[in-house]
Design a protein that fits this description.
Strand content: 5-15%
Largest sheet: 4 strands, mixed
Strand order of the largest sheet: 1-4-2-3
Oligomer: single chain
Order of helices and strands: EHEEHEHHHHHH
Helix content: 40-55%
Number of strands: 4
Length: about 250
């Protein structure tokens, strides 16, 4: 069946060229957005590498101008980082505006998917500087983020959410500790702490990490849950001893 498309879909002639990012024509409309924080991270990475390590895609227009189709943020970040030249795949075949838009959108939309478990393992293997360079954060280690704010049942409470990230096996261990802790704590009254007590909680995490040589805060929290369980066992035993003595 013959195509009814008005776009010329003939094969493209492409060559690799060295370009000056400052002279490239930029498209007026680009639906792909990058947050200021991510753009800043991209600039810092280019400064570290001394080069834009991902090739951009351009097309050669009839008037001789070289126009960016994919790579607006990379080229702009290169300029911001003081790296003005880089490699570009240059489409030499004349393109209609419709095909330019189609190519631009396809580069933004057609991407692979990450294996969440493998991504978490790779990220966890990096040191702090490499993690920053990756452009990711500890949220990649988190699977289920829990019930969220809806679990508060609409109560008119001002609260801050604190997220801890675990590798799958650490999360299972933490859940076991928390379940055991909940069972041991049934006879003790537990209340939500005011925000002013956060410093004590944070200091406890820091002390646990320091004294036990733990790097990951999630693991430190799991250890704290185990220690709290052991302390509750002690309190329970003391209460039983007092009851027996009476």
């Amino acid at each position: 069946m013959a195509s009814t498309s008005s776009v010329d879909w003939s094969k493209l002639k492409i060559e690799l060229r060295r370009v000056d990012y400052r002279t490239l024509k930029r498209r007026e409309k680009n639906a792909h957005y990058m947050s200021p924080a991510k753009f800043k991270r991209l600039v810092e990475n280019i400064k570290i590498d001394g080069a834009v390590t991902s090739v951009i895609l351009c097309c050669l227009n009839k008037d001789g101008s070289e126009e960016i189709l994919s790579g607006h943020h990379r080229s702009a970040a290169g300029i911001e980082a003081g790296v003005f030249e880089g490699d570009a795949l240059m489409i030499l075949t004349p393109l209609s505006e419709a095909r330019k838009v189609a190519i631009q959108l396809s580069h933004n939309a057609i991407n692979g998917e990450d294996d969440a478990s493998l991504l978490a393992q790779l990220y966890a293997s990096l040191d702090i500087d490499a993690k920053k360079f990756s452009g990711l954060d500890d949220s990649v280690l988190a699977g289920d983020k829990g019930p969220g704010a809806t679990a508060l049942g609409g109560a008119n409470i001002k609260y801050d959410e604190l997220l801890f990230s675990f590798l799958p096996e650490d999360r299972v261990r933490f859940e076991v500790e928390m379940e055991a802790l909940a069972k041991r704590a049934k006879r003790f009254r537990i209340h939500a702490a005011p925000q002013s007590r956060f410093d004590d909680f944070f200091d406890a995490i820091v002390r646990t990490k320091s004294q036990l040589n733990i790097v990951n805060s999630g693991i430190a929290l799991s250890v704290m849950a185990r220690l709290a369980g052991e302390r509750l066992d002690q309190l329970e035993a003391e209460a039983e001893d007092k009851s027996d003595a009476a």
